[in-house]
Each structure stands twice: as structure tokens, then as C-alpha cells.
Amino acid sequence: MVRILPQTKSAAVNPLKSSQPLGAAFAFLGVEGAMPLFHGSQGCTSFALVLFVRHFKETIPLQTTAMDEVATILGGADHLEEAILNLKTRTNPKLIGVCTTALVETRGEDFASDIANIRAKRGEELAGTKVVLANTPDFHGAIEDGWATAVTAMIETITRSGKQARDTKKIAILPGWNLTVADIEHLHETVESFGLQAVIFPDVSGALDGTVPDRWIPTTYGGTTIDEIRELGTVAHCIAIGEHMHRPAEVLHRLTGVPYVLFQSLTGLKGVDRFVSLLSAISGAAVPAKLRRRRAQLQDALLDGHFHFGGKRIAIAAEPDQLYQLATFFIGMGSDIAAAVTTTDTSKILDQVPAESVQVGDLGDLEGLAAGADLLVTHSHGRQAAERLGIPLMRVGFPIFDRLGSQHKLTILYQGTRDLIFEIANIFQANQHAPTPETLDPFRNRDMPDDSRSSPLARH
Asked: Helix, strand, or coil here: 217?
């Protein structure tokens, strides 16, 4: 059984994790007409905004309540109300997603009551705009916790409760934060190929896919609509992807009775086969020929690629669900996990990571554990460690700011798994070292004994 090693350092060295508020804002960005609002200081929001812009290379709608010293001491309800009303007046969003930060969470304010009072007092002025609260203190959890908290809060606040008439051809998919824009677009296409309609929530492929609108839009301009969130109870089935999406799926089931299935990962032949079989069972349709062909391509890629993966030592640093996704992929290809580092110990999926131990820590811990590994797998902040260790780096997760197109890389289903195999095998090939006489013959430079001393005649 894997050992979960807790963090023991009092400071992070080259931090690995991003905060809960950032994860919640990320989820709100997957809703059409949304405006994430950080309830905290300007610095908290500015830092998150820089990370988003550098990663996506897009304009990111993100605002702050701009708490000052006085508000921090006396309470921030007035700042929160003023910010919400200003956003309504200036941008008229369909959704304002309030993400709390450590600054206000430490004070222990009752944000739910504050927002309820704002709704009661300013109901007419806020007509047409949903205000959703996600309690996301920076000092607890990480990006995947914030994402899941925001999705849960939107379901609890917006989705119509009670059993409703269900459309047998409509399913809901709750993707994890680590799915790229390309992954979600590919999910849409795959579900539709079975004659089904997919409501993907949150859908960052609509808002962060790199398109340029024909006019200035101050909010998000794509993603899951408020109406689709409200009518989630009309879907026939719900599919959650990643352990951190277990709770949102459970809440949806509790409110509406919609059954759900949880997939820990959609990377790898076995998990994808299970997903495709489920879609076939729900739709009553045979698996399309295009998907069968992609599966055959993946099988061929597995045969071609396993020679490059066998025996390789991999060091991974990622959020829990992404760590599980990548570690199981590498183990399936015949590699070994030399080091596994994650951001938080709150996820149950860590018990299933195929490694001897998982260290809760930072990229400094990864660097200390990764000596002798053949590949480092983490986000762009791992580039210095990779350079110092002389190990190639595969960039995954968030943020990736020194490469273009990270959001348009497939990582799931048959095609995404195939592409991962080729990408990583090419990294291994590009970093092969030419054989030397010493490596071919380890005894070439061995020390030879002194014949005169070893001779029996010499001893007499």
C-alpha cells in the first residue's frame, strides 16, 4: 500500500500547488457570461490573474473586492456588496462567482449570510444575475479542491431540485480541472457520435479555446449556460471524471436523483474502453467505426511505444487526480515511478497511486527525490529543477507559460492516450545518449592486479 508522507517543511521551496480560489475561479470561467470575484486583497487577485493570462494567453475576466486594512479588521461585507453592485452595473454578468481568500477566511466572517442579505436588499438591482459563493481559503487544499467546491456551489445554488422528466438522450459530464480545452471538445464529439447530447459542466472549451469574439465582451463568452446548469436534473445520467468530482456528482444525485458513474481517469486503454461501453449502453447504439479505428491506432501505438517506456524511471509532481492519471499511464507502459509529489493529502485517490510513497510537498521535494530519473513530469515551474538535474521535462498541468498550445493537447480517450505515448516516446528518443566503450563493456577500465605480487613464485 502506498505511504502518504505529510509535508514537514515550514516553507515552500519552488511551490508546486496553486490555491483554492484560483481553482474556483477556473471553474466559474467555464460558465457563459460569468465573472469570478475574489473576496480579498488586490494582490491575491493580481497573482491569480497573471497565472491565468500566462497559461492561456487570453484576456481573463477576474475582479476583486479590494479589501484594505480597515475592511480586513472591521469586516468586508460592505466591500463585497459594493463590488457585486459595481459588476452588475458595469458588466451585467449572468453569474458572479465569489471566491473567498485566506485574508477574509481567517477572520471567520459569515459570507453566506452576507450574500443572502445582499440578495434580499438588492434583489431588483441584481435581477438576471446569479451570485454563487465558494468558500475557498488559500491555506487549505489546492486547485482541484477549489474547482470542485465551485462546481458543488453552483449545483446547490442554481440547479432545480426534485425529480424531473428526464431526456434519455441527454447526459451530464462533470470534468476534472486537469482536462484541457482539447479534451473537453473531444468529449463533446465522442458523446455526440453516439447520438447523445452532452451537457459538460464546467465547459472551459467554450470560454478559453483561443477564439477572438467580434466585439468586446467583459465576461466569459462561452461555456455552460445558466439554463443548462438549472436543468441538470433532466439528464438521464451523470459522468464524473476524477475523484475530486465525486462530491459534485453526489450533490447532483441528492438534489435531483440523477444517477452517476465516476471515472478516476480517461487516459489508458482500459478506462477508455469502460467509458465507451457506458456510452454505448446509454444510447443503445453500437460503437462508431471512427472510434473503433482510433482504438486500433492506440493498440498499435502501445506496441510501438512500449520499447521506449520499459524500465524508465519517472518523477511526477502534480495535483492528486492528475498524479493518479499520469502514474497509472506510465505504469501501464512498463515504466517505474521513481518519485511522486502532490499538493494536498485531502484526496482519497492518493491511496491508489501506483508508487511506493507519495510526498505532499513542493518542487524542491521533487528535485530531491528525482535524482537518477529519466523524465520529470510537472508544470513549467519545474524547468529549473530539470536543468539542474540534467533530466528532460514534460510539461503538464497548470501553469504552462513557456510553451504555446498546451490547452490544445489531447490527453484522454483513445486519441489522447495515443498522442501522449508519441510525445513521451519522442522525448526519450531525443534524450538518448550515444553508447560509449565504457557503457558497452563495464569491465573495460577495471583495475588489473599486479602479476608479480599475485604470482606464487614471487612469494618465495
From this structure: coil
Question: How would you write 44-95 as a 3-class SS string?
Answer: HHHHHHHHHHHHHCCCCCCEECCCCHHHHHHCCHHHHHHHHHHHHHHHCCCE
Q: What is the pLDDT of residues 171-219, one digit of tens each?
A: 999 999 999 999 999 999 999 999 999 999 999 998 898 888 888 889 9
Pairing, β 336-342 against β 357-360: parallel
Measured distance CA(150)–CA(137) in Å, rounded:
12
Sketch out the chain's domains with CATH numbers: 18-140 (3.40.50.1980), 167-287 (3.40.50.1980), 294-430 (3.40.50.1980)
DSSP single-letter state for residue 263? E
Helix (H) or strand (E) holding 132: strand 130-134
pTM, two decimal places:
0.91
Q: Cβ neighbours of residue 235 under 8 Å, at least 6 residues apart? A: 166, 167, 170, 171, 172, 199, 258
DSSP string, 390-415: T--EEE-SS---SSS-GGG---SHHH
**Which residues lie closer than 8 Å to 276 by C-beta, 6 or more apart?**
190, 287, 291, 295
Residue 419 has phi, psi (to 5 degrees) of -65, -35
Q: Which H or E element spans position 341?
A: strand 336-342
